[in-house]
Amino acid sequence: MIQEADIGVGISGVEGMxxxxxxxxxxxxxxxxxxxxxxxxxxxxxxIAQMICYFFYKNIAFGLTLFYFEAFTGFSxxxxxxxxxxxxxxxxxxxxxxxxxxxxxxDVSSEVCLQFPALYQQGTKNLFFDWYRILxxxxxxxxxxxxxxxxNIVIFYNQAFRAGGQTADMAAxxxxxxxxxxxxxxxxxxxxxxxxxxxxxxxxxxSVATWFLFLLLYGLMPPSYSGDVxxxxxxxxxxxxxxxxxxxxxxxxxxxxxxxxxxxxxCFNPMDHxxxxxxxxxxxxxxxxxxxxxxxxxxxxxxKIGFTARxxxxxxxxxxxxxxxxxxxxSQNCMPSPx
Length: 339
Hints:
Elements: E1 9-11, H1 18-21, E2 25-27, H2 32-72, H3 83-93, H4 95-104, H5 110-115, H6 121-124, H7 131-156, H8 170-192, H9 198-220, H10 223-226, H11 232-237, H12 241-268, H13 272-281, H14 284-287, H15 289-299, H16 305-334
Parallel strand pairs: 1-2
């Protein structure tokens, strides 16, 4: 039974440890199953779903800018980013915020999950990892990549970059574009999170600070090591107001569609956890007993998910039996009759 299930839960007891050894999760008492499913099951599903969708978003937003630049330069083979930028993007600059999302994210507290068991149905209905959600995040990444590339090219193309009238070279454009990517993707994951701790603040905003610190320290190294990044932040980008204004403009332009989407959804088509968050945040469970009773009654409604799953399993078993019976009849008909 445990081997046939998607996730096996074993209960250690007097019957022995065989079920525990063959299971994915082990509990000591049956009453712990409620918290394992309703609380941790709900949290883990949303964490993993949001983390994977965000992976699609940030890598599309970053990777497509390289393709756009190659097409813009006639596929010359020249990269707009320094090699160290591309190496550190997934390893350091955007890894810790994703880890914090996958470990600490909680759309509602554990007490609320136990009060509203219907939230667990979001996982069984796959509301956060369907094709609509995945394609939406991929489209958001495509939009962000276009905004980052087009705005940077338009702003820096044939335009004075510094007070002396110098135009920006490829190193300045690449560093500015990469700065926009780091700020945009980290602000995006900050908007995705519903629960913040000091660790998440440290990981998200620390990643942004790490990028500027790296650009500063790398530019202070001798030119034989830093190359065209030598003194880039201190002498070129830092004193230029257009650098900081471009980062602000591009970051805001990238996150505006997501802000509009979540605002529209919360106002006109809220999901269950949106309503419950509003109830708990504004303490409407104390002031508006009618809303509280309505959500609690939804949590006690009978669901057909388990029944549907059992019916599908019976149908599959019936089909297997029919196939076996038909194969047996065919083999019997093919056997030669005794002479």
